[in-house]
Amino acid sequence: MIDLGFIHAFVASLSVIIVSELGDKTFFIAAIMAMRHSRLTVFTGAILALALMTILSAVLGYATTLIPRWFTFYASSAMFAIFGLKMLREGYSMRDDEGQEEYEEVSADLRKKEEEAEKEGRSAGDQEIGVVRTKRHNPFEAFFSRIFIQSFTLTFLAEWGDRSQISTIILAARDEVIGVICGGVLGHALCTGLAVLGGRFIAQRISIRTVTLVGGIVFIIFALSALFIDPDD
Question: Which residue intervals make up region (Disordered) (predicted)?
Answer without folding.
Answer: 103-125
